[in-house]
Amino acid sequence: MSELQASASGGRVRVAVDTPQHSGLTGPLDYLSEQALAPGSLIRVPLGKRELMGIVWPGESDQATAAELLRPILGVLEGLPPLSARWCELIEFAAGYYQRSVGELALSVLPPQLRELDGTQLQLRLKRVAKWAAEQAARTPDAAPVLPTLSAAQTEALARLDGLLRQAGAEAAPPPLLLYGVTGSGKTEVYLRAAEHALAQGRQVLVLVPEINLTPQLEARFAERFAGVATVSLHSALTPAQRLRNWLAAHLGQARLVLGTRLAVFASLPQLGLVVVDEEHDPSYKQQDGARYSARDLAVYRARLEKVPVILGSATPSLESWHNANEGRYQRLALPARIGGAALPRVRLFDMKTLPVKKGVMTALTAPLLQALRERLARGEQSLVFLNRRGYAPVLHCGECQWKSDCPHCSAWRVFHKADRTLRCHHCGFSERVPSACPTCGNLDIAPLGRGTERLEEQLAEALPGARIARIDADTTKLKGELEAQLGAVHAGEVDILVGTQMITKGHDFRRIGFVAAVNPDGALFSSDFRAPERLFALLMQAAGRAGRDAEAATLGPSEMWVQTWHPEHALYQALARHDFEAFAKNQLAERAGAGLPPYSHLALLRAEARDAAVAKAFLDAAAAWAEAQPEAQQQQMLIYPPVPMSIARVANVERVQMLVEAGSRAALQRLLRLWLPELGALKREHKGLMRWAVDVDPLAI
């Protein structure tokens, strides 16, 4: 008897429940039900001594277990439509590919508050959602939105998209579209028009952004354009009640537009018609704990399942997406020019080796840079100074005994934060007051080494008295509403110089900024991570893209990007100076092809953590020995590298060791991982002292 037949008449049902990884229960479990249950229904079931939420899962039950040994379900969450078969397919694929249990992933992406509701509470929530949806539909715009005139490239891109939208749901899934447009070329307008066309067809639209701080800004753009269209956001900054309401609105089809960060790729959207992934290259789309999924890759897979278009937009596409477009797997649409005739900023590479070598010369705020900032201030232009390190200084230092402010719990330095006089570890959170003297030798003269955004802000205020300076980083935007207020001040022209980390380089449409400076970007050029140059190039291109976005403001003077570097001759900076992503991508892909790195190979990382590094290493050595003995590893071109400590080896007194697996075939790597996982669970039980292990498929940071 098939599962659908069983559900129709009651009897045996498969249920996905959140089982712990060490239990070895990775698939759905069988239960008994007296009533008919459609796949995707939310129910409550017993597991051991606990009562859990579960999802009736499509597929065949395991007939090997006698019915009298099965436990009955405890209840059904009435009034909620079942999750769709395609949603279940997406979860099943993601769980299999990223090596997690189906139930663990399926339940973790549902709103936590949903698990706590009984039938009465759910009905109350559903009434509130219906009332909210009615209020949204009743909104009317003060005036019809003024639509900007499209460029020829935007018109061509939309014509291609319209053709794919008309084919949505056809026999074959449309190819993913890589929208490659320089910063300020109007990618957001293409998203808005494509969303408008999908909504006109009665479909829902999913728009993904990399960072939470971009969601309110994009939400405002969509709300302005689509008054009367119910729009919700899904991200981790929402309260549990907000997340539940927004998820229910999307699941019931009442929310037509869903904007969110990586978690939103799992939103239940029964009438999905278009998926947009903005800044598709951004590493924030990769989850770094639990199920380490890539929301961008799953967005592409989900669009294929639903047979709807997916737009991947970026000025600096990931090399994987660029390679897919080169190979014909993706269609590439180009927006090569800025809207309104605005010019891209001129990039000036300032050679730090030309500075005089003498004590007291600042290597962050050089005299020529300060002069350039003064000129912009005199013209009434805004400037942006970018440094991807928060805090006052990366470390405090004693010149007598060479003590540095290391963290007692991590193999990292504690950062000096001058505002609250603390030394704070950005890895484990350990914080204490700055000592009045060196804790080792008692020297009173301990001083900061290096600089972060806090110190940069202070030095700018000293060097440019009268300039209105604002700092935006994780320290200044902790409280709700702070980020919006600071961005509002920048947009209103109440700030002359904006200082910040990568938070301010992504997606923001600053109309008044004419000058951008990157003061210390060289570190990533010599990283052991092969993806570091790609990340640096994207970050600098995005930072440059904040300047000169308004063609009218350019009448004050040409926009400029200033890069202070000790290596101006480096190929990365030379490509940046020409705004030549294509040359940079060609160079990087050639290097990766020669080294056999992604996208020309496929990687997985096995990580292990223990109080003693030797315990973690012994576990990984045993895991490697088992894997190397398997035919899958011997027959395929597969390399299992020796275990090594992670770049920050100790965090919160836990030692972290990793082992890289490289395969020429994605399928072969997946087959090995499926065989390996049960064995890893058994090995953990043998290696006493091992705290946890995890597999990261397609890792971004190595």
UniProtKB/TrEMBL annotation:
Alphabetized UniProt keyword annotations:
ATP-binding, DNA replication, DNA-binding, Helicase, Hydrolase, Isomerase, Metal-binding, Nucleotide-binding, Primosome, Zinc
Q: Where is the Helicase ATP-binding domain?
A: 168-335
Q: Which co-factor is required?
A: Zn(2+)
Which of this chain's residues are annotated to bind Zn(2+) 2?
Answer: C407, C410, C425, C428
- Entry annotated with the keyword ATP-binding: yes
- Cofactor stoichiometry and binding? Binds 2 zinc ions per subunit.
Q: Which domain of life is it from?
A: Bacteria
CDD domains linked to this entry: DEXHc_priA
Q: Which GO terms describe its molecular function?
A: hydrolase activity
Residues reported to bind Zn(2+) 1: C398, C401, C438, C441
UniProt record similarity statement:
Belongs to the helicase family. PriA subfamily.
How does this chain assemble? Component of the replication restart primosome.
Q: What does this protein do?
A: Initiates the restart of stalled replication forks, which reloads the replicative helicase on sites other than the origin of replication. Recognizes and binds to abandoned replication forks and remodels them to uncover a helicase loading site. Promotes assembly of the primosome at these replication forks.
Give the protein's recorded name.
Replication restart protein PriA
Record the organism.
Roseateles violae
- Gene name, please? priA
